[in-house]
Automatic annotation (TrEMBL):
GO cellular component term, pick one: mitochondrion
Keywords of this entry: DNA-binding, Mitochondrion, mRNA processing, mRNA splicing, Nucleus, Repeat, Repressor, RNA-binding, Transcription, Transcription regulation
GO-annotated biological processes: mRNA processing; regulation of gene expression; RNA splicing
Organism field: Pinctada imbricata (Atlantic pearl-oyster)
Gene3D superfamilies per record: 3.30.70.330
Record-given protein name: TAR DNA-binding protein 43
Cited InterPro entries: Nucleotide-bd_a/b_plait_sf, RBD_domain_sf, RRM_dom, TDP-43_N
Limits of the RRM domain: 128-204, 214-285
UniProt-recorded Gene Ontology molecular function terms: double-stranded DNA binding; RNA binding
Compartment list: Mitochondrion; Nucleus
Lineage of producing organism: Eukaryota, Metazoa, Spiralia, Lophotrochozoa, Mollusca
Amino acid sequence: MTQYIQVAEIEHDEPVEIPSEDDGSLLVSTLAAQFPGACGLKYRNPDTGNFRGVRLSEGLLYPPDGVWGSHVYVVVFPKLQPAVTVPERSDEGEIHYIPSLCDNKRKGDNELENPSAKTKRLEQKKCTDLIVLGLPWKSTEDDLRSYFSKFGDLLLTQVKREPKTGQSKGYGFVRFANYDSQLKCLAQRHMIDGRWCDVNIPNSNEMNSPPSNRKVFIARCSENITADHLRDYFIKFGEVIDVFIPKPFRAFAFVTFLDPEVAQSLCGEDHIIQGTSVHVSSAAPKFPAKGAGERRDGAGVEIGIGTMGDGTGIETGTGSIEIGIMIAEVGIRDQDLPVEGILT
DNA sequence: GTTGAGCGTT
């Protein structure tokens, strides 16, 4: 018959009573329902003062000596080793000296906190948007929020819909404020409104970007994001020397930084600007451009048009225009250059 | 009003 087992998240914390199965064993999934991400239990052995682990087999925890008794058990969570617990993407080969992506701090303001390098790396691991697959058609942003907030504070909830009908496409995105929330969330499946849903790091976050460029590509811009918004937002990471938004609206932009390091450090990240989650990636094209400048390595010719003076690139307005052609190890984005009509 | 693998109006 069912026993109730006292379990606390940390020792001396207030315990929660968790039901066993009829045979006395405890499903890890039952445990995880109260303590998301939990993978085991331990308890203090009164004889030695040491912690003792509870036996785990096939997703079931078994009571020591056959009875759970009146111990207060303590939840065991997976060690925070991202390489093991999280499906890593290729964008993590280097340490990012970023205290937290989510509060958007950068080098220069992190010297005082975070003593050990190892801790630092863990704490600094960035939160990305997470894709939630398999949502019920009726699930809303509010439903996502109320479900996922048990893992921690949320910075974004989004259900993707058909623009015309508003009908859900059955998936959405969430983003946590803290990386441990993200880890816990990724470690399990989710029952949302009667359906099992999967949470993953979206494939669209893959960043196999080639090296150094001061210009980054800002994807998923919404129409209400202006050049000033972008400049004001990104200035906190380093000096912004150009912002380019195509007209008419094309849902992307370019931001150029003075320091290529800054540009590179932002690649692969998601940022929330004017309530929209935008994605930063290298301004180099994913595929070689078609046509004249094409090369097998994706490099090509970049044609720049701009006014003289501050060197910040394309601007509008009157005045003399300088046309320059620069051979560079940068590819051409097709979006970059419908310029034939202007070269007169 | 239906559906059930996917990847966000480059």
